[in-house]
């Protein structure tokens, strides 16, 4: 550290840093190596901040680092993930999700390498499946599949939020299983599976469940 930053400024010259990256003895994660290169290429001040380096290695995404990536990504090949061969079905699915959801190549790579299969993304899938089952049950019970809220028996459900039953605290959460009709259910299910599941694959069940339930309570 003293050789790279003798004055202890917290910054390293980009040329020194670039040579260190390319001559490093230990094998680096390909995704992080690409980001290190982008960090150097996107730096306009000729110096690399030590804190940005720490944030990168620890997988944090500071705003300054995001700007560096955005500026440096133009010098990186944009078809790396598409050119990878020998991927199994699941990895090809992850790559497909990355290209459908994320517009930035660096974020696609980050997602591709950061996603986790263990634990599996069961929360969003379970919520969506429960919503479908509840809708089918009420559809059959009410014999109504469109605009169920217009049915006089709809508001008698113990799951629906009702202003007259605010003391029943569970209703502030269970209303998330009720839907107006097929259109709303389909739209919600599509968003939850296409966006919620990929998010859960990266951030885990605790974060995504907290975020989802916070949205339910806020709603």
TrEMBL record:
Superkingdom classification of source: Eukaryota
Membrane topology (UniProt): Multi-pass membrane protein
Pfam family, one: Rhomboid
Signal peptide span: none
Subcellular compartments: Membrane
GO molecular function: serine-type endopeptidase activity
Domain Peptidase S54 rhomboid: 168-219
GO cellular component: membrane
Enzyme Commission number: 3.4.21.105
Catalytic activity: Cleaves type-1 transmembrane domains using a catalytic dyad composed of serine and histidine that are contributed by different transmembrane domains
Keyword terms: Membrane, Transmembrane, Transmembrane helix
KW Cell cycle (keyword) present: no
Enzyme category, top tier: hydrolase
PANTHER family cross-referenced by the UniProt entry: RHOMBOID-RELATED PROTEIN (PTHR45840), RHOMBOID-RELATED PROTEIN 1 (PTHR45840:SF4)
Protein family: Belongs to the peptidase S54 family.
Protein name (Swiss-Prot/TrEMBL): rhomboid protease
Organism the protein comes from: Circaetus pectoralis (black-chested snake-eagle)
The encoding gene: Rhbdl1
């Amino acid at each position: 550290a003293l050789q790279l930053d003798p004055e202890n400024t917290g910054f390293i010259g980009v040329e020194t840093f670039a040579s260190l990256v390319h001559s490093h003895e230990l094998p680096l994660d390909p995704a992080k190596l690409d980001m290190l290169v982008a960090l150097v290429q996107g730096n306009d001040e000729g110096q690399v901040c030590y804190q940005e380096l720490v944030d990168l290695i620890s997988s944090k995404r500071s705003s300054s680092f995001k700007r560096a990536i955005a500026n440096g990504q133009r010098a990186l090949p944009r078809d790396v993930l598409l050119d990878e061969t020998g991927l199994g079905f699941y990895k090809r699915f992850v790559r497909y999700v990355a290209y459908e959801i994320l517009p930035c190549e660096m974020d696609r790579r980050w997602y591709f390498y950061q996603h986790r299969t263990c634990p599996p993304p069961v929360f969003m899938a379970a919520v969506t499946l429960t919503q479908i089952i509840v809708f089918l049950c009420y559809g059959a019970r009410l014999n109504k599949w469109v605009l169920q809220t217009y049915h006089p028996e709809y508001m008698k459900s113990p799951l629906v939020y009702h202003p007259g039953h605010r003391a029943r605290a569970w209703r502030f959460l269970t209303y998330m299983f009720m839907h107006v009709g097929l259109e709303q259910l389909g739209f919600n299910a599509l968003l939850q599976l296409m966006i919620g599941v990929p998010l859960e694959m990266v951030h885990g069940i605790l974060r995504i469940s907290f975020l989802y339930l916070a949205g339910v309570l806020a709603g």
